Amino acid sequence: MDVARPYAALCPTLDSDVLNVLAGTSRSLTGREVARLIGRKSHSGVLDVLSRLSEHGLVDRQEAGKAYLYTLNRDHLAAPAVVVLAGMRTELLARLRHAIADWDLPPVHVSLFGSVARGEGDATSDVDLFVVRPDDIAEDDARWRGQIDDLAAQVVRWTGNHASIAEAANAETNRLRKDRPPIVAELGADAIVLSGNALASLLGAGR
Prior knowledge:
The chain folds into two domains: 6-85, Arc Repressor Mutant, subunit A, CATH 1.10.10.10; 88-203, Beta Polymerase, domain 2, CATH 3.30.460. 46% of the residues lie in helices and 17% in strands. The protein is built from ten helices and six strands. Strand 4, helix 7 and strand 5 form a beta-alpha-beta unit. The protein is elongated.
């Protein structure tokens, strides 16, 4: 999926960007505000979309002086589908956490980092995961490897994106903390903890 615009898989038009913005707030927005949040310099196309969606009843339009204010009509039959599409990244985080919580061999830590954690990237971006393995479990332990492989396969099924999994034993985190390889800086910048110990306790990084 397009990491930055996951809803584009089903609706690869400006309509999806407009609906995504409206689904993310209960506040009324002008056409210019919607365009700014989407990242478009011109708001004429956005106004066309808002007008069309208003005609279908999916968007409420209210006069406010010389402008109009727009909100998603959450009572509309299509509104739940819009909210689901807008929340696909949140759903991915929930599925990852649930899958890891079901592991027979619990990890010391798992976090998501990189473009998916930042809400950036596209359909070719990897889903980057950092996994810390307990010291009493060998790297080639069949059950452990099965968990890792199953998670990687699930990520592909859920998103269409490849899972890139960086793994370290718990004992190796001391070396990572000392040597500070590039991955430590990446984790510190944007990692989202999915399971286990906080990154700060492992590497002195993360959120």
